[in-house]
Design goal:
The protein is mainly α. The protein has one domain. It has 3 helices and no strands. The chain is globular.
Length: about 90
């Protein structure tokens, strides 16, 4: 099930690592670090723009990922990050 983003969440712009360049973060970003493109109200400043990393565009909100709170989404994404990290 695809959802709309929860206002003021930004979990998907904080919890996962992004290995591709992001404007302002040429080396990508580590997991748990807030993206520099996340606005004060936790919206992506690059949404819909060609500079937005493919990883970000491919990550779609879902009931499983987002749950009922930002905290749930952070925990879910952090767990996914841990499970998919190179060993």
């Amino acid at each position: 099930m695809t959802l709309a983003c929860r206002p003021r969440c930004g979990a998907c712009c904080t919890a996962p690592s992004i290995t591709s360049p992001i404007p302002g973060m040429p080396g990508g970003k580590p997991a748990g670090v807030r993206c520099v493109q996340l606005t004060d109200d936790n919206r992506c400043a690059l949404f819909g723009r060609p500079e937005r990393p493919a990883f970000c565009a491919s990550l779609k909100p879902s009931a499983d990922m987002c749950g009922d709170s930002r905290e749930h989404a952070i925990t879910w994404l952090a767990n996914l990050e841990r499970l998919t990290a190179p060993r």
